[in-house]
């Protein structure tokens, strides 16, 4: 149900923001695309991978964002157009390389696409990547609708080649994961041969070695490039004004907030009183353009997500130009007109504009509102949890059993992946996971905890990490723990795929993003090479997992346990149940002392149902994935599992 | 060439639970509308949808403009709920006295209900609530029909058929067929057409589908 | 001074579930490790010598709390339901008879802690069909005991000697109850005997608990038991744990713990051992396993410890206990010798001493003691 090769130039089709960005890159003749999966960015590389073809377009899921950026940079150095894609916090990972790359400059057009997640809809942060553009001194573009996402991406390559540096395109969840009409453009036939010219002097941007040194010289050059970009931005079609010639209120906005602002004005019927300056080129701001529009009025509202990035830049320009444009009153994040945390929406913007202009937003009739409140109050929540048959549920069950037996207050340092659920919703991880930060940080934090024994810390320390996260950032942390001889138990939850974001390939698999066979890197062998004991277990083997863990918890130093079992959503598992499972009602102890609903109250696999009327547990055959694990936890042997016929 | 809409933009919410084919339903419906020459925006919340959360798509349809991927509060014109309590959840935020609501009666229990902590409202209570809050409320046993067709996932297409039957949008079976043929392997088209027709007829006839046995 | 038995007011609040068990016993450090709360349900288990909660149970009332020897118990009521009140003494509970005995079989004696009376009686009970299953404490890993279930009298006769780390005997009883054993005999420390007695008298809920299968409780005298972790740490400083073959505590005037190893006997001053004593034992006022059919301890004889250590003193408390002992006399399984004058009085004094110390410990624990009520 997404863009495919069949769709023809000139067709108006519905594309997701991410697909539109991918299409823009294709229309620009991108040859190499690399990224690391992360919501809301993953569909860009996924879409491109469907267009990949040897010698025409190379696409990869890299081990992490820094590597992705390096891979894309190499293509640029060899004269090809390239793209790297990541979610907001991925830019943090890549930033060390980015700092040097922006100093050295690029050759073939190179774009960094970052998809931010205001409101943290599927992140554990709402970090802003826009600030990196300023920090790294590279131009920043922000599309405000779906079609523009394509056009802007395409143009970003031209810009990159014009200034010989990386250009950052920033999207947000509500652009990336929303869809709208897009008119497809032609796909060019690209033939440029990859060649890295490097025989010239350092000062030659076309034939010299590529490096950020001599630093001062290169830095000066970089700033010139930025000024050139600002000049090009002065008459960019991505910056537009809509509204009266001299509005009462000027709204300056970008990205999805443009759509919210338009909607707010429409809701308030304030078309005659407020105008919108929509900026597509948000760093560096074109000063003359801003001056022209700031002149229109005295009241200025800046609408953006999440931090006052644009607001601060506009204020600086306004201060510099105050003599010519007069003193302004600014509304935005700093004065509290709009919230500085979370995502915006049309209602929040309408409330802000209404407050400034003295207009009440439209309201539904009070009588209806009352009825609504009374009738919709007590709805059962939809809590998120591990899927039916999820191996992580079994892993955390085993961890819980071992930690309770061990009885020294041990805990798990969590990490990013589906299993982060254990940290986010305590009941899902049976109250074992106690920290959650960046990719791979669980292991680093554990490594630190593991050195606190001499300070009196007696609690055993565990770190969990998914297979994809392991390659991404846990390896250096684990090596650190080994080298420092930290006392930790490292558990790799190996479910054979980047399940969280939809089964992208990673170095542990034998297939790459383009569907080609590729060598896999074995976690157990890697850990073994670090010289620490490695045990491989199956999380569905409850007793084995628990006994192993209890033994490991008592041993000093770094111990590795790999719990291997493929994800319940993995294609091969979705096809067929391994066990047919049912509850023998006669044996089920239900709420009585002797069980008290262990399966539905504590274990909570959605495949198990508590039947309130009969006061017995049941299996929901439609939902149960047939993993058979719950049969092993029932104290009464009431959950019966039978191997399903082959 | 665009046809007339009762509102500009016309706001549709398709809601359900992860795994019900919500995203597919909103794409099919929107693609039909794009073919009719409308500007359509879909806003989707599906971050953790595979793990049992509520999934909601906002569809904005306009002859001329691109609208925000988030519908303002209280401004839904049509709510299509693939799961009954999700209809009520969406009404709470986007309901208004003139909203129309289509509800698939097949419940998917939240974890709290499965584990016995929360109680799921009775079908009667759900019907009563939706009817009290909507200008027009229609209830369908879409999943049951879909199971009869051989695949519960087709419930989403039954519901799209129902949208067509409602007559508020210029979409018909032919248009559906054109769109579905583009994406589906030919073998699956027939069942989809069937599902669409069932939903369409059920609403057009103003006679609800056979009730789910409780 | 407070009596170590709980007062009736506290028994009013004597109902609870896991939450109360955790607050009053496990969390308060008063768990004996008896295992009475283990195996009834999926929520408690034994790991090493520790009873741990695996998951939270929110029932307001449960068998775990009801059976636990450290939750408030009306001991007087329990005694009057299970024993003939006319033979009850305040110091030692029911005393139908008091004897000095030892196993006739020298092989049994050699493997036994003292006179081998316990081992001989259990083997006899199995052989004569008084019980079909015996639950004993055998050798586990290192100095950790392991609960074992024996059906063969010969095998029972091979067991013997005391483990000073607690064994989860009642958990094993709970497990065995679910099987096809019909008549179970248990060798129990005082706290374990109390748990079994409580299970006998408590109304049970839906799930069956098979307490009617309990046919014999042979109690052990007990001064205290040791924490596995602490004892292991202490012994590691003195010897290789793998070499330890047994232990004993001679009469108090010696003030030592004797540790037998494959090489020598190590004597450790009780001052060093004291920190290893389980907290729950300090608050325990039962030295003679008052809730058994008969109780066995080491003898006190005028000839001194070297002779006394191969004899036992036995308190018979019930009809069933008396029948077993008489059977043993008739069949020559046990040898008897005259009870030295004053022995029973000395035992009473020692028992009273333990009740007093327990009461002081309880009082010292302040509020916890008030809530916990008594010390089993
Ligand atoms: C922790 C502990 C403390 C004791 N303290 C005293 C004391 O202060 N004064 C005193 O006179 N006697 C005490 N005894 C009892 C004494 O050690 C002998 O067990 C008793 O004299 C019987 O001797 P026997 O030769 O007949 O035993 P044996 O024939 O050797 O039989 C011993 C029996 O005790 C069982 N057993 C061993 N360890 C345990 C345990 N940890 N929990 C439950 N059952 C066990 C074995 O299964 C075996 O059946 C104590 C026993 C224990 C286990
Ligand atoms: S077998 Fe049990 S644990 Fe596995 S999916 Fe089914 S209900 Fe869940
Ligand atoms: S764990 Fe077993 S006995 Fe307990 S409620 Fe579930 S099926 Fe019944
Ligand atoms: S089920 Fe019963 S015995 Fe088990 S913890 Fe709960 S109340 Fe205690
Ligand atoms: S004393 Fe026995 S019953 Fe009480 S908590 Fe400890 S093991 Fe459980």
What this model shows, in words?
The complex is a heterotrimer of chains A (646), B (214) and C (376). With 646 residues, chain A is of the alpha/beta class. Chain A has four domains: 12-233, Thiamin diphosphate (ThDP)-binding fold, Pyr/PP domains (Rossmann fold, 3-Layer(aba) Sandwich); 240-357, Rossmann fold (3-Layer(aba) Sandwich); 391-572, Rossmann fold (3-Layer(aba) Sandwich); 576-643, Alpha-Beta Plaits, CATH 3.30.70. The radius of gyration of chain A is 28 Å and the shape is globular. With 214 residues, chain B is an alpha/beta fold. Chain B has a single domain (10-205), classed as Pyruvate-ferredoxin oxidoreductase, PFOR, domain III (Pyruvate-ferredoxin Oxidoreductase, domain 3), CATH 3.40.920. Helix content of chain B is 42%, strand content 18%. Chain B has a six-stranded mixed beta sheet with strand order 2-3-1-4-5-6, sandwiched between helices. Chain B starts with 9 loop residues before the first strand and ends in a 10-residue tail after the last helix. The model of chain B is unreliable at 207-214 (pLDDT under 50). With 376 residues, chain C is α+β, with helices and mostly antiparallel strands. Chain C folds into two domains: 18-227 and 278-364, no CATH class; 228-276, Nuclear Transport Factor 2, Chain: A. Chain C is built from 16 helices and 15 strands. Chain C has helices at 8-12, 18-26, 63-67, 75-82, 106-111, 117-127, 153-158, 169-177, 190-201, 228-238, 270-273, 279-282, 305-308, 319-330, 343-364, 367-372, and strands at residues 44-47, 50-53, 88-89, 93-94, 97-103, 133-139, 145-150, 184-188, 214-220, 244-248, 256-261, 265-269, 294-298, 312-316, 334-337. Chain C has an eight-stranded mixed beta sheet, sandwiched between helices. In chain C, 49% of the residues are buried. Classes of the chains: A alpha/beta (646), B alpha/beta (214), C alpha+beta (376). Chains in contact: A-B, A-C. Chains A and B meet through strand 1, helix 7, strand 8, helix 9 and helix 13 of A and helix 1, strand 2, helix 2, helix 3 and helix 4 of B. Residues 112-119, 122, 136-137, 145, 159-164, 166-167, 169, 187, 189, 220-223, 225, 249, 296-298, 312 of chain C line the site of flavin-adenine dinucleotide.
Strand order within the widest beta sheet of chain A: 3-2-4-5-7-6-12
Q: Which structural class do you get from the secondary structure elements of chain C?
A: alpha+beta
Give unreliable regions of chain C as ranges.
Answer: 1-13, 367-376
Radius of gyration of chain C (Å): 19 Å
- Total count of helical runs of at least 4 residues of chain C: 16
Give the tally of β-strands of chain C.
15
User: Into which percentage range does the β-strand content of chain C fall?
Assistant: 15-25%
Bound molecules: flavin-adenine dinucleotide, iron/sulfur cluster
Distance between the termini of chain A: 32 Å
Mean pLDDT of chain C, nearest integer?
Answer: 89
Overall outline of chain C: globular
Oligomer: heterotrimer
Specify which chain pair forms the largest interface: A-B, 60 and 58 residues
């Amino acid at each position: 149900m997404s863009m495919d090769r069949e769709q023809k130039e000139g067709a108006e089709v519905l594309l997701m923001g991410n697909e539109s960005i991918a299409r823009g890159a294709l229309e620009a003749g991108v040859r190499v695309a690399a990224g690391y999966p992360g919501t809301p960015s993953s569909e860009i590389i996924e879409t491109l991978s469907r267009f990949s073809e040897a010698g025409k377009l190379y696409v990869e899921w890299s081990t992490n964002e820094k590597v992705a950026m390096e891979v894309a940079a190499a293509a640029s150095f060899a004269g090809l157009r390239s793209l790297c894609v990541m979610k907001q916090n991925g830019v943090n990972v890549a930033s060390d390389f980015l700092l040097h790359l922006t100093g050295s400059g690029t050759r073939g057009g190179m774009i960094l696409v970052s998809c931010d997640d205001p409101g943290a809809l599927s992140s554990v942060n709402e970090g802003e990547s826009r600030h990196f553009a300023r920090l790294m001194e590279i131009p920043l573009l922000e599309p405000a609708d779906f079609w523009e996402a394509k056009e802007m991406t395409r143009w970003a390559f031209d810009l990159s080649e014009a200034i010989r540096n990386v250009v950052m395109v920033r999207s947000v969840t509500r652009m990336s994961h929303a869809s709208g009409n897009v008119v497809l453009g032609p796909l060019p036939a690209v033939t440029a041969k990859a060649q890295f010219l490097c025989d010239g002097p350092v000062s030659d941007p076309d034939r010299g070695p590529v490096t950020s040194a001599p630093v001062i010289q290169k830095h000066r050059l970089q700033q010139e490039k930025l000024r050139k970009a600002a000049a090009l931005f002065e008459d960019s079609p991505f910056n537009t004004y809509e509204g009266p010639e001299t509005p009462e209120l000027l709204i300056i906005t970008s990205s999805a907030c443009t759509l919210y602002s338009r909607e707010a004005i429409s809701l308030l019927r304030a078309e005659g009183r407020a105008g919108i300056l929509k900026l597509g080129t948000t760093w560096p701001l074109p000063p003359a353009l801003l001056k022209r529009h700031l002149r229109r009025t005295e009241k200025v509202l800046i609408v953006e997500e999440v931090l006052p990035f644009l607001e601060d830049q506009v204020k600086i320009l306004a201060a510099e130009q105050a003599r010519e444009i007069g003193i302004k009153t600014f509304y935005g994040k700093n004065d509290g007109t709009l919230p500085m945390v979370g995502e915006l929406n049309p209602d929040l913007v309408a409330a802000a504009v209404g407050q400034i202009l003295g207009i009440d937003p439209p309201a539904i009739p009070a009588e209806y509102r009352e009825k609504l409140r009374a009738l919709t109050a007590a709805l059962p929540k939809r809590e998120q949890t591990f899927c039916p048959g999820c191996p992580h549920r079994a892993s955390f069950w085993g961890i819980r059993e071992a930690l309770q037996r061990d009885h020294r207050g041990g805990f798990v340092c969590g990490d990013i992946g589906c299993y982060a659920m254990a940290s986010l919703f305590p009941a899902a991880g049976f109250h074992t996971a106690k920290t959650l930060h960046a990719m791979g940080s669980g292991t680093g934090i554990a490594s630190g905890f593991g050195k606190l024994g001499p300070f009196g810390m007696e609690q055993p320390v565990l770190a969990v990490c998914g297979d994809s996260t392991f390659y991404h950032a846990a390896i250096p942390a684990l090596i650190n723990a080994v080298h420092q001889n930290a006392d930790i138990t490292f558990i790799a939850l190996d479910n054979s795929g980047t399940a969280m974001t939809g089964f992208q390939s990673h170095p542990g698999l034998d297939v790459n993003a383009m569907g080609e066979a590729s060598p896999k890197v074995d976690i157990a062998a890697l850990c073994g090479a670090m010289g620490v004991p490695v045990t491989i277990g199956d999380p569905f083997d409850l007793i084995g997992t628990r006994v192993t863990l209890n033994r490991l918890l008592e041993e000093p130093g770094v111990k590795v346990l790999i719990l291997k079992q493929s994800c319940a959503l993995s294609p091969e598992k979705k096809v067929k149940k391994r066990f047919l499972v049912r509850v023998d009602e006669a044996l089920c102890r239900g709420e009585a002392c002797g069980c008290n609903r262990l399966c539905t109250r504590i274990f909570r696999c959605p495949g198990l149902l508590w039947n309130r009327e009969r006061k017995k547990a049941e299996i929901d055959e439609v939902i149960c994935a047939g993993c058979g694990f719950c049969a092993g936890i029932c104290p009464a042997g009431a959950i019966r599992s039978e191997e399903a016929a082959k | 060439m665009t046809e007339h809409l009762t509102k500009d933009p016309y706001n549709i919410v398709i809601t359900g639970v992860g795994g019900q084919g919500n995203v597919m339903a909103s794409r099919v419906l929107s693609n039909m509308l794009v073919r009719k020459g409308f500007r359509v925006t879909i806003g989707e919340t599906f971050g953790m949808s595979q793990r049992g959360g509520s999934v909601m798509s906002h569809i904005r349809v306009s002859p001329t403009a691109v609208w925000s991927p988030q519908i303002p509060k209280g401004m839904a014109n049509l709510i299509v709920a693939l799961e009954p309590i999700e209809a009520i959840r969406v009404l709470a935020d986007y309901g208004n006295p003139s909203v129309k609501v289509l509800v698939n009666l097949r419940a998917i229990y939240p974890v709290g209900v499965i584990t016995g902590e929360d109680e799921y409202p009775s079908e009667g209570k759900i019907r009563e609530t939706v009817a009290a809050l909507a200008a027009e409320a229609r209830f369908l046993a879409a999943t049951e029909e879909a199971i009869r067709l051989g695949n519960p996932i087709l419930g989403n297409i039954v519901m799209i058929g129902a949208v067509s039957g409602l007559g508020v949008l210029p979409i018909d079976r032919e248009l559906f067929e054109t769109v579905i043929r583009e994406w589906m392997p030919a073998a699956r088209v027939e069942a989809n057409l069937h599902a669409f027709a069932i939903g369409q007829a059920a609403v057009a006839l103003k006679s609800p589908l056979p009730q789910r046995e409780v | 001074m407070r009596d170590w038995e709980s007062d009736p007011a506290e028994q009013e609040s004597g109902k609870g579930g896991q939450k109360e068990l955790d607050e009053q016993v496990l969390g308060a450090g008063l768990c004996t490790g008896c295992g009475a709360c283990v195996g009834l349900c999926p929520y408690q288990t034994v790991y090493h010598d520790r009873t741990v909660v695996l998951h939270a149970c929110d029932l307001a009332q449960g068998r775990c709390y009801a059976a636990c020897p450290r939750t408030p118990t009306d001991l007087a009521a329990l005694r009057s339901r299970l024993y003939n009140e006319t033979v009850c003494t305040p110091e030692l509970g029911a005393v139908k008879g008091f004897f000095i005995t030892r196993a006739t079989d020298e092989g049994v004696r050699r493997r036994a802690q003292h006179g081998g009376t316990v081992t001989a009686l259990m083997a006899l009970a199995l052989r004569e069909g008084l019980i079909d299953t015996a639950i004993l404490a055998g050798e586990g890993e290192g100095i950790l005991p392991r609960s074992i279930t024996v059906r063969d009298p010969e095998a029972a006769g091979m067991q013997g000697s005391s483990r000073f780390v607690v064994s989860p005997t009642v958990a094993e009883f709970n497990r065995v109850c679910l099987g096809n054993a019909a008549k179970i005999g248990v060798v129990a420390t005082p706290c374990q005997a109390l748990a079994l007695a409580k299970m006998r008298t408590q109304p049970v809920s839906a799930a069956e608990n098979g307490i009617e299968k309990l046919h014999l409780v042979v109690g052990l005298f007990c001064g205290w038991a040791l924490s596995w972790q602490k004892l292991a740490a202490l012994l590691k400083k003195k010897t290789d744990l793998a070499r330890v073959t047994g232990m004993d505590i001679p009469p108090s005037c010696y003030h030592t713990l004797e540790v037998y190893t494959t090489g020598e006997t190590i004597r450790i001053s009780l001052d060093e051992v004291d920190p290893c004593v389980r907290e729950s034992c300090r608050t325990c006022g039962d030295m003679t396993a008052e809730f058994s059919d008969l109780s066995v301890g080491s003898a006190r004889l005028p000839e001194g410890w070297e002779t006394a250590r191969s004899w036992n003193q036995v308190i018979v408390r019930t009809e069933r206990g008396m029948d077993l002992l008489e059977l043993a006399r008739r069949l020559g399984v046990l040898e008897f010798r005259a009870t030295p004058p004053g022995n029973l009085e000395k035992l009473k004094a020692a028992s009273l001493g333990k009740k007093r110390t327990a009461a002081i410990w309880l009082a010292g624990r302040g509020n916890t003691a008030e809530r916990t009520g008594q010390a089993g």
